[in-house]
Amino acid sequence: MSFEKVCKVEDVPDGGVLGVEVGETPVALVRQGADVFALHDVCSHAEVKLSEGEVYDGTLECWLHGSCFDIRSGKPTGPPATRPVNVYTVKIDGDDVLVSLSKES
């Protein structure tokens, strides 16, 4: 599995989200304390950036229509989205956040 450094842990607000690019793939990074999660940064319902949404209770909510996604699995937890978004593997190396675009199994 190939990992790419995308930012520093401190760049991702605790309880918030940061949009980054891994190659040409948009990725939304969500930090909950010491854990960082990576989801495809395009809502499966409306094709807008999820990184512009809000995070609460392990959920990333799309700003446009309110679709909600579990930050661990990418599965929709609230309508109108019915399809999941990809999640990616994250590694923390010191202060750096590394992401692999290989889908988690």
TrEMBL record:
Domain named Rieske: residues? 4-99
InterPro entries associated with the record: Rieske_2Fe-2S (IPR017941), Rieske_2Fe-2S_sf (IPR036922)
Which terms does the record give in the GO molecular function aspect?
A: 2 iron, 2 sulfur cluster binding; metal ion binding; monooxygenase activity; oxidoreductase activity, acting on paired donors, with incorporation or reduction of molecular oxygen
Show the CDD domains listed in the entry.
Rieske_RO_ferredoxin
> Could you name the domain of life of the organism this protein comes from?
Bacteria
Q: Which keywords label this protein?
A: 2Fe-2S, Iron, Iron-sulfur, Metal-binding
- UniProt xrefs under Pfam families: Rieske
- Name of the protein in question: Non-heme iron oxygenase ferredoxin subunit
Q: Which organism is it from?
A: Nonomuraea zeae
